[in-house]
Amino acid sequence: MKLEYRGTPRPDYEHWSPWSSPYDYDRMRREAGVPILSPAPRRYIQFRVDFLSESLDAAGAVDSIGFTFSAPPVAHRLAGEVAVLREGDVPSFTAKAGEVEKFLYSVLAEIKGQDVGFDRLLVATPTQIDSVEEVRIDGVKVPPGQWSWSATPDSFVVHFPRIWQDSSLLQIVFRGIVLRYGTTFRGWASLEGSGDIPQEVEAGDATPEVPTNSLSVRTALGGDLIASLQVDPSPFTPNGDGVNDLTYISYNLLQVTRDVPVSVRVYTPSGEVVRTLVDGKQGSKVYRISWDGRNDEGDMVVPGLYLVVVQVSTDSGTEQAAQTALVVY
């Protein structure tokens, strides 16, 4: 076609999702495959491979690309949204960073034909949740003996009676913490024991009572970057007897959307640096590190009171938080 007749290429978002983020090639090789990030199930998939090289003599080629899929799927579509529940269980868009909040996770199942349904939901979380308080199916509370849950530091799983009716609404009430603006609670549904690939929940309008239509939670901008700094146990006795030989320094890093410079140092009361425990970059997360009572040279410090200082540097300035640690023998 002549250049003067060519139009400007435009994405067809009516029939195709936007391009996903790039896949980690090293992870694909290491784990022999990674989950597809695009919405599913879909009949067609489009992919692009870019070859990057610093050598003019290098050349690349694709030998093969394989896809593993489950048919029939869990559901034709799973639309989900999350909300913060305020007093009276009124849904809200905004959570308080670093504080335990009550959340409502809603999933509307569009099930057609031979879709197998699901009885298990895994939700990714920024920290380990405190509890799952309630499971509802179509507005009815599921009796405690018919559902169960478990949690890890970065997710929780809920088991419940199998859902396989079209337009069924699953709702889970849980308590947990968000650390930054835009925290996303991704979810995957599956049928226990089927061996099928879990199907991801897409952000959408699951129920009129929740106005978010999103799997992400906002937080109020501003506020402290360092929260819940603790040194425990204090006092501790690093004498090698196996009892209280270490003290643990834990803190929450809030409201940073990318890794920022963070340091954790131990000081004497006169301001001398005894030990540097962290000096690098960290993102919004819950951290827990240990101190064995030694200085940077590897020698035991003298008994006494020390100051543990966590410092965070961002574009808007520097913030510090401190706690004491008492060393005794």
Description:
The structure is a single chain. The chain is mainly beta. It has two domains: 77-219, Immunoglobulin-like, CATH 2.60.40; 226-327, Sandwich (Immunoglobulin-like), CATH 2.60.40.4070. It is built from one helix and 22 strands. Strands 1, 2, 4, 6, 7, 10 and 14 form a seven-stranded mixed beta sheet that branches. 25% of the residues are buried.
Reconstruct the topology from this structure:
Layout: H1 25-31, E1 77-85, E2 91-92, E3 94-95, E4 101-110, E5 118-124, E6 131-137, E7 140-141, E8 148-152, E9 155-163, E10 168-176, E11 183-184, E12 187-190, E13 199-200, E14 202-203, E15 216-219, E16 226-232, E17 247-253, E18 260-267, E19 273-282, E20 285-291, E21 304-314, E22 317-327
Parallel strand pairs: 1-14, 3-15
Antiparallel strand pairs: 1-2, 1-4, 4-10, 5-9, 5-12, 6-7, 6-10, 8-9, 11-15, 12-13, 16-17, 17-20, 18-19, 18-21, 21-22
Tags for this model:
single chain, 329 residues, mainly beta, Immunoglobulin-like, 2 domains, seven-stranded mixed β-sheet, 1 helix
Condensed summary:
The protein is mainly β. It contains one helix and 22 strands. It has two domains: 77-219, Immunoglobulin-like; 226-327, Immunoglobulin-like (Sandwich).
Query: From the coordinates shown, what is the CATH architecture of the largest domain?
Result: Sandwich
Q: What's the average pLDDT?
A: 91
> Which fold name corresponds to the CATH topology of the largest domain?
Immunoglobulin-like
Distance between the termini: 85 Å
Tally of discrete structural domains: 2
Percent range for helical residues? under 10%
Provide the gyration radius in Å: 25 Å
Shape: globular
Number of strands: 22
